[in-house]
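Dear colleague,

Thank you for sharing your sequence with our group. We've completed the structure prediction you requested, and as agreed, I am returning the results in plain text so they can be pasted directly into your records. Please verify that the sequence below matches your submission; if there's any discrepancy, let me know and we will rerun it promptly.
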Amino acid sequence: MLKTVDLNQVMVIDIETVPQYAFYDELPPHLQDLWEQKTHYQRKPEQSPDDFYERAGILAEFGKIICISMGIFYTQDKNQYLRVKSIYGNDEKEILKDFATVLEKQLSTLMFCAHNGKEFDFPYLCRRLLINGIEIPVQLQISGKKPWEINHLDTMELWKFGDYKHYTSLNLLAAILNVPTPKDDIDGSMVRQVYYEEKNLPRIVTYCQKDVITTAQVLLKFKGMNIIPPENITIVT
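Please find the predicted structure tokens below.
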């Protein structure tokens, strides 16, 4: 199936998320109770709900999206190119509205690709769209569809080869497939701090774009194709 995928119909995406509130103490009391219930079995015995709150950004009920980066492949003079654009800001609803508008201009058959997208990016987007009262774009809708009708690619799932217990990070997958990656300025565990304490959103956007580029290159490896040289990658501002 992957061999027949038309890259010109693929959008590679990555999202960056943070807790809706900078600190646990800022959560309204009823949400503090719900956070404690939600994370009860995830926390270690010595961890308090406050201690565990730094992970709130990965749960769609308690987090929000601050950046969506998208990569589009295109071919010119028989050469492969990648164009990367990001939608970001402090107003999640505006980010999601702009993202939905972008998808309205794309074919309904557009295929998404992300690393661990089926477990994180795709459902997180759908949940936050619903919470913000925005209609879920047709490309993200999976209800009622058969597995082979869902146009979602996941590079982590591709690497599993049916081993559902196997987790491989994007950085590790890129390394073993000889995909060059720029040295990361930050990692996922630092996004909350960079956003709330350093207030440096552009730094997070750059990190998000790097992941899109790396995921795109990994996808090319899965298709048995050459990776795209840096000079053929454009960051659209």
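Summary note from our side: Residues 201-222 form the longest helix (22 residues).

Kind regards,
the structure core
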